[in-house]
Write a structure and sequence with these properties.
The protein has 83 residues and is of the alpha+beta class. It has a single domain, classed as Beta-grasp domain (Ubiquitin-like (UB roll)). It is 27% helix and 30% strand. It has three helices and seven strands. The protein is globular and about 35 Å long. The N and C termini lie far apart (37 Å).
Length: 83
């Protein structure tokens, strides 16, 4: 199981802050994990596939081709700005 977290505006648009992803194979890429989630929740495609969504695995920013494994925590969030 991979714990998937959603933050900020992304959490609001999806209507939840967390998702438990059951994966048949491990490790897999972040892109493959996202497709597994979208197979179960196709209504999330627009939000999760937005070009500016940032992904972190175990609290480190990663790319879509990075590997994730069973037991990892993956977070999706929009870009953060500050002042």
């Amino acid at each position: 199981m991979i714990r998937v977290l959603f933050f900020a505006k992304l959490r609001e648009s999806l209507g939840q802050s967390e998702y438990q992803a059951e994966v048949a194979e491990s490790p897999l890429t972040v892109a493959a994990l996202r497709e597994c989630i979208l197979n179960a929740r196709p209504d999330w495609r627009e939000s999760l596939c937005a070009p500016n969504v940032i992904v972190a695995c175990n609290q480190e920013v990663v790319g879509l081709e990075s590997r994730v494994s069973d037991g990892d925590e993956v977070a999706f969030y929009p870009p953060v700005t500050g002042g």
